[in-house]
Amino acid sequence: MSLLLPAIGFGVVTASILALAGVGFTLQFGVTNILNLSYGSIMTGAAFVALLVSQQGFSVWLAVAAGGVFGAIFSVALNRGVYTPFIRRGTRLFGMIIVTISVALVVQYAIQAIWGASFFSLSGLHSPSIHLGDFAFTQIQLGIVGLGLGAMVAVHLLLRFTTLGKAMRATATNPELARNCGVATDRVIDIAWAISGGLCGLAGVVLVMNVTAFTPATGGEFLIPIIAVAVLGGIGQAYGAMLGALIVGITSELAAALISPDYKDVVAFVILIAVLLVRPKGILSEIAAAKEVAA
Amino acid sequence: MRRSIVALALAASVASMAGGVTAQAAAGSAPLVVGEFAPFSGADAVFGPEMAGGCIPAVRAINADGGVLGHTMSCVEEDTRGDPADAVPAADKMIASVTNLVGALGPSSDEALPTVPILNQAKVPMFVETGQAAFDHTTAAYFWRITPADDVKGFALALWAHRAGYTRAAAVFGSDVGSQSDVPTLLTAWKRLGGTMVANQRIALDSSSYETEVEQLVQSRPQVIFTEVDPQTGSTYFSELQQLHGLIPIIGTEISLEAPWLKAVSGALGAGPTAKYIEGMQPYAPPSGPAWKVYNKTLRASSSQVPQPAQWSADPYSMTFYDAVNVMALAMLDGHSTSRSVENRYISTVTAPGAGKTIVYSFAAGKAALAAGHKIQYVGAGGPIIFNKWHNSTGAFEAAKFINHHLKLVGSVSAQKIASLSH
Lengths: 295, 423
Prior knowledge:
The complex is a heterodimer.
Chain A (H helix, E strand, L loop, with lengths): L3 H29 L6 H17 L4 H29 L4 H23 L13 E4 L2 E4 H23 L1 H11 L1 H6 L4 H27 L6 H4 L1 H11 L4 H21 L5 H15 L6 H10 L1
Antiparallel strand pairs in A: 1-2
Helix pairs in contact in A: 1-5, 1-8, 1-10, 1-11, 2-3, 2-4, 2-8, 3-8, 5-6, 5-8, 6-8, 10-11, 10-12, 11-12
Chain B lengths: L1 H21 L9 E7 L8 H18 L8 E7 L4 H14 L3 E5 L6 H10 L4 E2 L15 E2 L5 H14 L4 E7 L2 H4 L2 H10 L3 E8 L7 H9 L4 E5 L2 H14 L5 E3 L6 H11 L1 H7 E6 L6 H11 L15 H20 L4 H12 L6 E3 L2 H9 L4 E5 L2 E2 L12 E7 L2 E8 L1 H8 L1
Parallel strand pairs in B: 1-2, 1-3, 3-4, 4-5, 6-7, 6-8, 8-9, 9-10, 11-12
Antiparallel strand pairs in B: 10-14, 12-13, 14-15
Helix pairs in contact in B: 1-3, 1-4, 2-12, 2-13, 3-4, 5-7, 5-16, 8-9, 9-10, 10-11, 13-14, 13-15
């Protein structure tokens, strides 16, 4: 049996996790202009909240929801309590990056101080595999793909068909103009942190469901592919991040199948560099910009 | 700023060279210090506590027996962070600043290549943790290795699988240098034993999924998997294999018998499947015998300095570090000097077998025998230590399984069989 089709199927699972994380990350940057490098650590925090829920005997999907709620609340609190005061004091992009790295370290080591530097697993992850033609998935993986698809559809509906979505896009494009046009940008930014934090939390939990064993550093180690997805699609572009996730997820699995497992991460980054050479602002940035102007 | 950095670097180098040239005897009655030169933080942070699990009981027993030539002994942590960039200044600092340094435990594979020459130049006897094959024929006079080299592991894995009757095997090893160093000898050994290596996967560590690699593995239809990967990679890879196709027997290196690996993998697979399908090979150091009894008793009595000491009771690396400190102390006694260069000359003298020698299983027994004018052979908790001309001592390997939260020995591969297969 050829490995090509199964690899594409497995790539879709990876893409689903990357899409959840990448869309949250890019949405947050698009609206707030903060490159939040503590994102991976918040994913880990959500995973540990899910672990707490799972240890009480609840369903793993309830644990996923709890992780999402934690991500949303923590992100809003983080923005209000830490990031906003720095911005008010005039801290610029590079300074904010350092602040977010510091937050990432504080969160990671706080988790480590509470839980210890060890490996943890959510319970209830064992499920029979389902074979669909050449594709083979576990039920958990099908759930992850379904969650990823559902979240992407929800983000699409939010951005395209709701007043809030339009306000978010307006804030992302020009916050001052949006404010002058009557958009409550502070509230919009809060909601953007909540949505992106929620996606971050969901991504953190489904990531550790897929890797099965995790540490206080697991989310942080996943940050580079998330940034790659966001940059590939055009930073700040939710649809670009979705497309970027598909490209990175599928090409890395194809590289493992056709070249060598050792090169699965490398190939995805080679594609990233190649795309950025041709389209420096990412795949969808110019298309999105043109649409914003037309709208 | 740049000038002050250069000045600091020069000062450190001069201090390091000064330590190396003199290798002088200890002053007064100040404690003799053994440097635990290993990662205490970073990805391999477990190495440091494992080393302390051997060093601390050893100095405790030595001090309880009156010390060495009027000195007590102590262990000092030197954190290399598992990174050459941190390890090189850590080595310089240890050499320059530790008073009465009589030897080092370590370095590990993470930092051995750049730091062994530094320690050797400074004439610091080092009992290394690294298994890198690059040191199989080292000419560094102060280098001593009493754990098997990585390339020997490949022979042990292949022999164990061959004995179980397997003929088709797959190799699943991490892409890191340490894991990959096992592979060439594994391939050679497996071929010499008549086996077929149906897949040889070099996998990227800590990916979110390995399903494609698992599919590739299953399509090659192996009967057994040889492996060395980190805990997170192992749990992801083998749980995907378990859920998509079912497990097959897995034979890992000593990494797969370490507590973090077992916690991660048994958490993902379940305790039953872990016990049924996974075996690990590690240097043969059975938790029994007179030397081990002394080690274990002293280790358990060191709970104020060694957290959860029982975890190191059957750890072959902790045992060999315990032995290393005893060997250093006995070498100084035999040489009647705390000078590192004299000590180094007597290391093989107190460990080599020989006619008329008194075999001793502890520092106390060795000290008494030397005081009585006897020549000694120290046989440690990890077994006899017989160095070849490159200061390597390779013993047998044992296979163990993780059953009911405990390691259970299930067999061994003798040093003779490994030697005959490797030549």
